[in-house]
Write a structure and sequence with these properties.
The complex is a heterodimer of chains A (about 90) and B (about 400). Chain A is about 55% helix and about 0% strand. Chain A is built from four helices and no strands. Chain B folds into two domains: about 5-250, Peroxisomal Thiolase, Chain A, domain 1 (3-Layer(aba) Sandwich), CATH 3.40.47; about 255-405, Thiolase/Chalcone synthase (Peroxisomal Thiolase, Chain A, domain 1), CATH 3.40.47.10. In chain B, strands 1, 2, 5, 6, 7, 9, 10, 11, 12, 14, 16 and 17 form a twelve-stranded mixed sheet that branches. In chain B, strands 3-4-8 form a three-stranded mixed sheet. Classes of the chains: A mainly alpha (about 90), B alpha/beta (about 400). The interface of A and B includes residues 47, 48, 51 and 55 of A.
């Protein structure tokens, strides 16, 4: 079975949840090279955004693996990889 | 001589109004807002009556991010602290010399229930922020972050006496010179249907005899009372020494002359005439106030059959039968953790107005010989007032207040 979600859709999903947790981002463009921390997300905000994405995808990723990605693009790649493995 | 403690700022929200001006006007008008409660998580095969806050207005500067992560109790704390903060000009106090005491425990039950139900079958996706929000001390973290408080902040719990206990603890922190200014917060108790079920089952919350007439259900001290009716509220009271208030030129509302706390040595919700009497007498003793000086009592008065009766006996036993009496809960309901703080605010606003608010639904007082303010507000300049709270677990608290003539 193939997953229909594209990397672009995943980036949109992450951006949507980042805006939900950080309403101050309204209007600011979010790109794959952005780091959540540079968008103003503290450690709790980052955990919250990652969990909201997992909830939307119905996919659970371990905390340890979430430490890896350095920016939103890499986070999207991690989720894509997990979705494809699932 | 210990320093004289005064109240220099207050903030309040309830179902009948946000802010002191709206709240005082509603009280003196005898307004109430009881209905079948509608907030999500309040009902389950039930139709509990209560008074819910319909809207909350936030200061323009509050970030949406702040509000998104804030529970109902935190949001209410934010608006009342903001009001008290500005009035007492706390921006001019060294933040390391400001403290916050939050009165109440287990106050966010409804939101916790909502989270538990939502994630019951998908716990892997539980929001990480639950780790912060399940503790009441999150209110301390939230408020100290918002207002830059650097002195001290912690919660105190005493069931329905929590709001008064917070004031007492704030007074003690100021007296001990731990801080110059200490804010007492009576936290908004956010009940879920679980607490409503159990409070009714134990006989504390009023029955459904007024199911079809919510406006008649809340009737402290009336012969047809049969339990308390819940009402959402939250209040903040700024306590400091007179000397500290003078440094900023802030006008005090009143002097906190003394207080008393007593335990009944009894876990059950049953009140104790002996315990209540002891709390009142110790407050009067600490205040060096003979009972005849007290011209107004703001009683606990929940509408509980045995609670109302015991409280009036205690007032008589303490020589307070001549003081004016009304019941703030008849208008706003029982705020539980918030009640003691919000009723102090009601008392000091009545003193400021020179008027006493009516007591709704007091058609046949269980003791008609007392000096009740019944269906209409009356003019009365409060000189010395007593405010009372009692809580499950056998705790009784009493605060003695004196009008401050200094700046009149």
């Amino acid at each position: 079975m193939t997953n229909v979600i594209t990397k672009m859709e995943l980036l949109d999903l992450i951006a949507r949840h980042a805006r939900e947790v950080l309403p101050g981002l309204d209007g600011r463009q979010i790109v794959s090279s952005d780091r959540l921390v540079d968008l103003g997300a503290n450690s709790v905000d980052r955990a919250e955004i990652a969990m909201l994405v997992q909830e939307s995808l119905g996919l659970s990723v371990s905390r340890v693996e979430l430490f890896g990605p350095k920016n939103i693009g890499e986070l999207a790649d991690l989720f894509l990889e997990k979705l494809n493995a699932a | 001589m210990p320093p004289e403690l005064v109240v220099t700022g207050m903030g309040v929200i309830s179902a009948i109004g946000q802010g002191k001006a709206a709240f005082a006007a509603a009280l003196l008008d005898g307004k109430a807002a009881f209905d079948v409660m509608r907030r999500p998580g309040r009902q389950r095969e039930s139709a509990y009556i209560g008074a819910e806050i319909r809207e909350m207005a936030f200061a323009p500067g509050v970030a949406r991010q702040t509000l998104r992560a804030a529970s109902l109790s935190s949001q209410a704390a934010l608006v009342v602290l903001q009001e008290a903060w500005i009035e007492a000009r706390l921006f001019d106090v060294d933040p390391r010399r400001v403290g916050l005491i939050v009165g109440g425990s287990n106050v966010q039950q409804r939101e916790l229930t909502q989270i538990h139900e939502s994630y019951r079958d998908r716990s892997a996706f539980l929001r990480p922020t639950y780790a912060l929000s399940f503790m009441d001390s999150d209110l301390c973290g939230f408020c100290t972050a918002q207002f830059g408080i650097r002195g001290l902040a912690y919660t105190v719990g005493g069931a329905s006496a929590s709001g008064q206990l917070a004031i007492i603890q704030a007074a003690q922190a100021a007296l001990a010179d731990q801080v110059d200014v200490c804010v007492a917060l009576g936290a908004l108790m956010d009940l879920s249907y679980w607490e409503c079920h159990s409070l009714r089952a134990i006989g504390a919350m009023g029955s459904d005899r007024y199911a079809g007439e919510p406006a008649l259900a809340c009737r402290p001290f009336d012969r047809d009372h049969d339990g308390f009716i819940f009402g959402e509220s939250c209040g903040a009271v700024v306590i400091e020494s007179l000397e500290s208030s003078e440094r900023r030129g802030v006008k005090p509302y009143a002097i906190l002359r003394g207080w008393g706390v007593s335990m009944d040595g009894n876990r059950s919700p049953e009140p104790s005439l002996e315990g209540e009497t002891r709390a009142i007498q110790s407050a009067l003793g600490a205040a060096l106030a003979p009972p005849a000086q007290i011209d107004y009592v703001n009683p606990h008065g929940t509408g509980s059959i045995v609670g109302d009766e015991t409280e009036l006996k205690a007032l008589r036993a303490c020589g307070l039968a001549d003081a004016y009496l009304n019941a703030t809960k008849s208008l706003i309901g029982h705020g539980l953790s918030a009640a003691g703080t919000v009723e102090v605010i009601a008392t000091l606003l009545q003193a400021q107005a020179g008027q006493l608010h009516p007591t709704r639904n007091l058609e046949n007082p269980i003791d008609p010989t007392l000096n009740w303010v019944r269906s209409k507000s009356i003019d009365h300049p409060i000189e010395n007032a007593l405010t009372l709270s009692m809580g499950f677990g056998g705790i009784n608290t009493a605060l003695c207040w004196q009008r401050c003539h200094l700046y009149e």
